[in-house]
Design brief:
Layout: E1 25-29, E2 32-36, H1 38-44, E3 50-54, E4 56-58, E5 62-65, E6 68-75, E7 80-84, E8 95-97, E9 103-108, E10 113-117, H2 123-129, H3 136-142, H4 151-154, E11 162-165, H5 177-185, E12 189-196, E13 218-222, H6 224-235, E14 240-243, H7 245-255, E15 260-262, E16 266-271, E17 286-290, H8 297-305, H9 308-320, E18 331-335
Parallel strand pairs: 1-18, 3-12, 3-14, 4-11, 14-17
Antiparallel strand pairs: 1-2, 5-6, 6-7, 7-10, 8-9, 9-10, 12-13, 13-16, 15-16, 17-18
Helix pairs in contact: 8-9
Length: about 325
C-alpha cells in the first residue's frame, strides 16, 4: 500500500477539541455507512459476545522549558533519558532549564534524543510539573500548547490502570464504567488487555510504501484468562468486538505468534505488527474506533479490516455530515 493512498481532505474545523457525550456513531455494514446512536450500538453487542478493551493509562510526561516542549519517553539510568523535543536549534552539550531546579543537557541528537539531568526525577516530579501528551493536532485546533484541567479526565479511559502510554486508546473514551456495567448485566464479557501506546503515535510515516515503513513497537500483555475467554467465545460462535486499534493489534499479535507465552500462561512482549489491506484477521470480527488521520498506520489498519475504497467513501460521507474527527471526535463501528 502506498502512503498516498491514505490521503483524504478534511476541514480543520471538524477536528474535535473536547469530547462530546454521547458521541455520534458511524456504523458501517455491507460497505454502507449509517448513523446510529451509542445506545443502538450497545444493543448490537449481544449476550455471549466479548468486548475487548485496553486498560493502559496515559503518562504525564510532557514538560516545558519556556516554549520548548519535551516528551520524556524512557529512563535509561538514574539521570539519563530518551526524550522527544525540537532539538534542531540546540547544540550537543547545551542545557535547558526545567521546572523545580532540574536542568537537562542534550547528549545526542536523533529520534529520540538522549539527554541527562542534573538530578533524578520520580513519578511524583512528573505529576507536579508535567502534562498529558495531547496530540499536536488538538493543540493546533485549540491554538493552545497547554492542556486544560478537564483533559485530566477527558484523556484517560474510565478503566485506565496500567501506566505506560504516550497517547490514550481513544475509542474507549466514548464509554463509561456504567456503559460497561450495562453490557455485563446482559451477558457481554468485558475482557481487558494492555497495550502501551508508543512513540510511533507522534512520528509521521516517511516511507512511500507501507511495506518499507519501520513500524514502531508497542508493549502488550494479555492474561491467560482474557485469551481463553476470547477463544471460547469464538468457538461458541459469538462475536469478538475490539474497542480500538490498540486492542486489535494486541489480539492479532498474539494470534500471529508475535508475542511470548501461550494460552496457558498468557502473552506478553513487544509487537511491530503493521496491519494493512491484504491482512487476514484471525480474531477480531467487529472494530470500534475513532476517525484517524490521513497517511497514518491506524487508517491503514481500518482499511485492512474493511477496504480502502470503503473507508474513503465512508469518511467522505461522515465529513459531509460534519462528524467530529480524531482523538476527541466521534466513533466509527465496522462490521465484517
Amino acid at each position: 500500500m502506498k502512503i498516498n493512498d491514505l490521503k483524504f481532505p478534511y476541514p480543520e474545523e471538524l477536528v474535535a477539541t473536547s469530547p462530546q457525550r454521547p458521541s455520534r456513531v458511524m456504523w458501517v455494514e455491507n460497505n454502507q455507512p449509517t448513523e446510529i446512536s451509542l445506545t443502538s450500538l450497545m444493543e448490537k453487542i449481544q449476550s455471549g459476545d466479548v468486548l475487548v478493551v485496553n486498560n493502559t493509562r496515559v503518562l504525564k510526561r510532557r514538560v516545558f522549558s519556556g516554549d520548548v516542549e519535551i516528551l520524556f519517553l524512557k529512563q535509561t539510568s538514574d539521570l539519563d533519558w530518551e526524550v522527544l523535543f525540537p532539538s534542531k536549534k540546540f547544540k550537543v552539550g547545551q542545557t535547558l532549564e526545567l521546572p523545580l531546579g532540574v536542568t537537562m543537557t542534550l547528549q545526542e541528537k536523533g529520534r529520540p534524543q538522549k539527554v541527562s539531568l542534573n538530578q533524578a526525577v520520580t513519578e511524583d516530579y512528573f505529576q507536579k510539573v508535567a502534562e498529558l501528551p495531547l496530540p499536536p493536532y488538538i493543540q493546533k485546533a485549540r491554538n493552545a500548547r497547554h492542556t486544560v484541567d478537564a483533559d485530566e479526565s477527558w484523556y484517560q479511559t474510565a478503566w485506565a490502570k496500567e501506566p505506560g502510554s504516550f497517547a490514550a486508546p481513544t475509542a474507549s473514551l466514548h464509554f463509561s464504567k456504567s456503559d460497561m456495567d450495562q453490557l455485563r448485566s446482559k451477558g457481554v464479557n468485558i475482557v481487558e488487555v494492555t497495550l502501551h501506546v508508543g512513540l510511533g503515535t507522534f512520528l509521521p510515516v516517511t516511507a512511500e510504501d507501507l511495506n518499507d515503513h519501520d513500524m514502531h513497537e508497542e508493549y502488550v500483555e494479555i492474561s491467560s484468562a482474557s485469551w481463553n475467554t476470547v477463544q471460547n467465545t469464538r468457538e461458541a460462535g459469538k462475536l469478538i468486538w475490539s474497542l480500538g486499534t490498540t486492542t486489535t493489534r494486541s489480539l492479532e499479535s498474539a494470534a500471529g505468534g508475535l508475542l511470548q507465552g501461550s494460552a496457558i500462561e498468557g502473552f506478553r512482549g513487544f509487537t511491530k505488527l503493521l496491519i494493512q489491506p491484504g491482512y487476514e484477521f484471525k480474531i477480531v470480527q467487529r472494530l470500534l474506533t475513532n476517525f484517524h488521520q490521513p497517511e497514518s498506520t491506524l487508517l491503514a489498519l481500518v482499511s485492512g479490516f474493511s477496504s480502502l475504497e470503503t473507508v474513503k467513501t465512508c469518511y467522505l460521507w461522515a465529513i459531509e455530515r460534519k462528524f467530529r474527527l480524531f482523538s476527541y471526535g466521534d466513533l466509527t463501528a465496522w462490521s465484517k
